[in-house]
Fold these 2 entries.
Entry 1:
Amino acid sequence: MDDLTPPLLTALRDVRWQLLSGRSTKEAVRNYAFKHSDALASRIGQLWILKQQGTLNLAEINWPNFHQKTFWELLERGFEGQPIVEPLTHLEDEVESVAKHDLDQHLATLPFKALFPLLFLQFPAFVILLIGPLLRELV
Amino acid sequence: MSLIFFAQTMFGNMFAIRTLRKFRGRALISTSKLTIIGTSFAFIIAAETFFLQNHPRIAVFVLVISLIFLQLALHVHEQRRISLLLRGFPVFLDRWILNLRTGMSTTAARDRALAATEPLLRNLLTPLITASDGVEKRRHRLFSEEITSELRAIQNQNHNTITRLQNLRANVRRASDFRRKSGQAMRQSAIQSFVLFVMHFALAGFTFWRTGWKNADLILIATALTLAGALILRVLARRIAWTI
């Protein structure tokens, strides 16, 4: 079955799990960024490198949404040595609830979206098979 | 004619044996089941070639379709088996946690939980959780890298075991719940595509039977349109507008 889990939820689960397994925030973020290949992972990886180099300017970062921004802020707190497992768990709950809402909306609109390929591609295919040979014989 | 008959039977059986051997190697379908399937298939191949010996082209076509069907049927059966086995994994963790809570050591609790697990899941889990660190590091057939590395870590570090197992169980259950929900979209589109494919090929077969090769171009265009529709439907089902 295809896994359609949103990247932020994957990131939260991965980092939280690693923290629970006894790894530091730095290790967890580095492992996560190297292991995954989605847009969020590469962004976190870039920010991690900039932070290591000391050239990270938080004001210049343009986050696509509030949840990703909160995730990075929590990671920053973790880099400073603060405990972040509990806040990460709460954020994961929030993200999961938003993701479920997004999924419900997607499932509700999918039948209408599915009408387009049905009407413009698959229905004409049936018409071609049914009427095509007859028309050819008539012509 | 008998040479064609012989070649069809031989090649058909060789492909069937190769397919069955591949599935036996993965060990997710039992050998006894594969033996039954293999024997039935050998009989089907012999029957096909015997009854269609005067129509070698049709016989080859039927044989190829049968071989594709065998591959597909075994794949579907294997996927069903995997999902059933994965459902048993949190139950195994439940038992392991329960044994630990009743005062058993990590190894004894794990072995007791393993003994109560279904034999196939037990066989797949045993090398994973009994191997020392550094052994059996290749990709597991059932579990993701996170799960396998966590199980190894639990096995090698004997502290905080209950909490780590509870975290693992919670993560497995949450991930599987979400995956099931998100899979609904893919299932809807897959069912729609399947029904349309069946109708399309039935209609294409009927057109071909009625008019022969002279409308082959129309059948080809219609098949291309149906395939394109299924592909677009799949893309639409996968493309979720996440707000997070």
Note: Chain B has eight helices and no strands.
Entry 2:
Amino acid sequence: MVRFENVTKVYPDGTKAVAELNLHVERGEFVCLIGPSGCGKTTTMKMINRLHEPTSGKIYVDGRDISTVNPVELRRNIGYVIQQVGLFPHLTIAQNIELVPRLLGWDKARRARRVDELLQMVNLDPAVYRDRYPRELSGGQQQRVGVLRALAAEPDLILMDEPFGALDPITRETLQDELKRLQAKLKKTVVFVTHDMDEALKLADRIVVMKDGRIHQVATPDELLRNPKDEFVAQFIGRDRLVASAETLTVADIMIRNPVAAPPHFGLAEAVATMRKRRVNSVLVVDEEERLLGIVTARAIERGIASHRTLGEVMETNLATVTPDQPVTLAIQRMLLGRLEFLPVVDEQRRLKGLVTNTSLVGTLSRTAEARGATA
Amino acid sequence: MITWEKLGELTLQHLTLSLSAVLLATLVAVPGGILLSRNRRAADPIIAVVGMFQTLPAIALLAFMIPLMGIGSRPALAALFLYALLPILSNTYKGLVSVDPAAKEAARGMGMTAFQMLLFVELPLAFRVIMSGIRTSTVLIIGWATLGAYVGAGGLGEPIISGFAMVSPRLILAGGVPVTLMALLADFLLGYLERKVTPRGLQV
């Protein structure tokens, strides 16, 4: 659908915005161009509808060398959405949406049908919104209209330049979800510029990471998360999002690192106060050398508070433990078999290193699953 | 001293002279402002030159016109035309360059030709500013058109000038009051028109 062949763009002041770029975007593919500012991603996108002209190299859209196509005609067949939305404030929502169809000479009835159909697609009631003006809409609604305007003439190809970058996080997510839903239905070819990796991972079929005007890595979100090419990509993705499977995770990766611990002579009433404050329901009992002696749960305290005074007197000492370097799978096994809610983590000298709980386990595993789900 | 009939005739003359000058200036200055907005580097010097006419004393400008165009309404029209240019030209320019760049980028990206962008996006968005330039010019010119009487263009300047010569406050008022009313009325009407024509989406 879109093919770049050795495309280079040098600005008049000598800065090389894009260098020797080769890229093929398949029909129906959602491609995100991502990279730090100044990496050439926006320039690359704007060359597709000839808002920028390449200095050398060729770009093909639908098999046609676009340097031979009239830019006005080319643009009318390519949807375009920008971050600042750019709705025309003097026109109603309907007039904004139907603008390209009007330029293309659609008749009035067909335009009106199309406007209503589009508004319904994003759950904006046509009867309410058709005749409103842009300034009467919220930012999120305006950008919905911005997207509809790009879709209006049913282009196969849509360019989006950080369309959700100026929205608040909640609205942004809603619009991303909506776009994903629309894309699943409409199967457009989309070139989407962003600097937000979450957004790219969520929306893209393929992510093009750019750096200094060059393509640094092209990969599906899944591949990118599993095999970032180098430190630059890894950092851009963010360490915490890199996928590690449950098989390769160690206990150290998922344990709580500073569990609530107290010496055996600690009073029960104090222990209750500490547990409340830290919002936990157990305390690990350790000696002066941080060696694990036992565990006391809130329930044990409840039972023992009348007849005992210190943690040492009520603690459970018969404990299953794991070491930090053991695989997570082993911890899961032990917890499932022993029906345990906690699994203290200790080193060879039995010094307390951390704690695995049901919640920390579930949290980690669901995050890995989510990262995979996002790429599925 | 002066009949109602004569006053009516002078008023009509005055109005025709003023409106012709503003109309001509609009026909020149709006396209001029559009051109300037496409050549921003040329804009400042050209607006400065047009602004210089504004600083010339009206009487001097009129005096210059006589050897060039003789006497009558033509030299008066030419001088008033030059006076009317600046507010319209500079407002057209300012209005066009202050159109939201996002709207222009969207328009271009959607495949509007330069002419369509001008017609459907830039001019409507700059309309208010251009209109207020025309309004300023009109009020200004209605006042200055009184000087037209010096070069034989007639208008409400005639009774005022005669009133000066004859030390007749009544005669001065006979010219001055209608001019003032005309200026106020023009300001009001153009303001009303401006609000009427501004699309709801741009009203604040």
Note: Chain B has one domain: 4-199.
